[in-house]
């Protein structure tokens, strides 16, 4: 038996309860969690913005120690530290054949599987986003684990599984920020803080952080922001004022709201680039007229998982950690237990703090 945070139904409160995990079968790995980050995507799954089979154990940003492996698993062994990879690529679909593994058509097929039982009634449980990290232990497909790189503490490594890969990838793979360019980051949560650090690592000359909360300014500046703006209807004008009335070269939107996406786009210079990381609902409609699209010559692009290949990017991130350029601990504003996840959801809704980290 292990304790887990179970989502019994969409829109229902999480239940901290015991679950029964099977031993790992062929091609599977059992992991004892060291830590799991509470991501906005988990909140989106719980409230129905994103679909997930229920009942489910959520949590997709985690790291831990291999307890056991099933037949055929050779890249990790019991005792190894691993990072959970919630979107493993199949290697054979069209996107994978193009090298765009972050768009793998089969990455989330495992989320529909039954992977465990709820102890008190035997109900089938699904692994939210494949890995079910909101639990003391989990059983995942072998492709969902990657060895923790040398020099990265196991608890901190959890953040590599989503926030850091997403923020770093948004800057380096999607927006392709060049040294000396200016960057605006909208939303100073866990992903936003990782994005700010990534912009600093890329050598951005001016890094503007934007958030609804004045209380996040210190967090943002520690992560690399040179300027801080409290979001308002004048945000785009303020950003242009900080950049010689031109606008920034790159804007990264980490919120997923129509008004924020539109503001991020308006904050870039003529020919600027906007990358949207935030996941919004179907009701969030963004409008542009044909003339302004022509006139401004701006680029607006989506970004899935930072357009990253975790197997290739984790060693790069680890080198930044070892060199002191990337501070994983700076993303975390709260360490909690499993029963603290609902309060962490409330804080995200209220726009408070950075990343809450469940420590087991």
Explain how this protein is built.
- It is a single chain.
- The protein has 360 residues and is of the alpha/beta class.
- Helices cover 26% and strands 27% of the residues.
- The protein has 11 helices and 18 strands.
- The strands form 3 sheets. Strands 3, 5, 6, 9, 10, 17 and 18 form a 7-stranded mixed β-sheet that branches.
- Strand 1 (2-7) and strand 2 (15-20) form a beta hairpin.
- Helix 4 (163-174) packs across helix 5 (190-201).
- The longest helix is centred in the C-terminal third of the chain and has 13 residues, at 310-322.
- The protein is globular.
- The mean pLDDT is 96.
Task: Offer a concise description of the structure.
The chain has 360 residues and is of the alpha/beta class. It contains eleven helices and 18 strands.
Write the layout of secondary structure elements.
Blueprint: E1 2-7, E2 15-20, E3 28-38, H1 40-47, E4 56-57, E5 61-69, E6 81-84, H2 94-97, E7 116-118, E8 124-127, E9 137-141, E10 145-147, H3 154-157, H4 163-174, E11 182-186, H5 190-201, E12 206-211, H6 217-223, E13 227-230, H7 235-242, E14 248-253, H8 258-266, E15 268-276, H9 290-296, E16 299-302, H10 310-322, E17 332-336, H11 341-349, E18 355-359
Parallel strand pairs: 4-8, 11-12, 11-14, 12-13, 14-15, 15-16, 17-18
Antiparallel strand pairs: 1-2, 1-4, 2-7, 3-5, 3-9, 3-18, 5-6, 6-10, 7-8
Helix pairs in contact: 4-5
């Amino acid at each position: 038996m292990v304790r887990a945070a179970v989502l019994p139904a969409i829109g229902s409160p999480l239940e901290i309860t015991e679950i029964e995990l099977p031993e790992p079968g062929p091609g599977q790995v059992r992991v004892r969690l060291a830590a799991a980050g509470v991501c906005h995507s988990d909140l989106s799954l719980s409230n129905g913005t994103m679909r997930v089979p229920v009942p489910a154990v959520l949590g997709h940003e985690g790291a831990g120690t291999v307890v056991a492996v099933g037949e055929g698993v050779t890249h990790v062994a019991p005792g190894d530290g691993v990072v959970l990879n919630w979107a493993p690529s199949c290697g054979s679909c069209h996107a994978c054949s193009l090298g765009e593994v972050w768009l793998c058509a089969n990455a989330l097929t495992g989320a529909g599987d039954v992977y465990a039982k709820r102890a008190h009634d035997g109900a089938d449980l699904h692994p939210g986003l494949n890995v079910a990290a909101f639990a003391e232990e989990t059983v995942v497909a072998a492709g969902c684990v990657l060895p923790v790189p040398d020099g990265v503490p196991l608890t901190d490594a959890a953040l590599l599984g989503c926030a850091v890969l997403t923020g770093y990838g948004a800057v380096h793979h999607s927006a392709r920020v060049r040294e000396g360019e200016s960057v605006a980051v909208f939303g100073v949560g866990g992903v936003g803080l990782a994005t700010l650090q990534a912009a600093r690592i890329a050598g951005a000359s001016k890094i503007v952080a934007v958030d609804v909360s004045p209380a996040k300014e210190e967090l943002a500046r520690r992560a690399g922001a040179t300027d801080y703006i409290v979001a308002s209807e004048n945000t785009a004008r303020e950003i242009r004022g900080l950049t010689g009335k031109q606008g920034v070269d790159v804007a990264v939107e980490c919120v997923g709201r129509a008004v924020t996406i539109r503001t991020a786009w308006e904050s870039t210079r003529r020919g600027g680039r906007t990358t949207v990381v935030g996941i919004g609902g179907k009701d969030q409609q963004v409008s542009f007229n044909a003339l302004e699209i022509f006139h401004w010559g701006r680029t607006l692009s989506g970004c899935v998982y930072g357009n990253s290949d975790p197997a290739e990017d984790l060693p790069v991130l680890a080198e930044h950690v070892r060199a002191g350029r990337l501070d994983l601990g700076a993303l975390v504003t709260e360490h909690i237990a499993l029963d603290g996840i609902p309060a962490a959801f409330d804080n995200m809704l209220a726009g408070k703090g950075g990343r809450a980290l469940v420590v087991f």
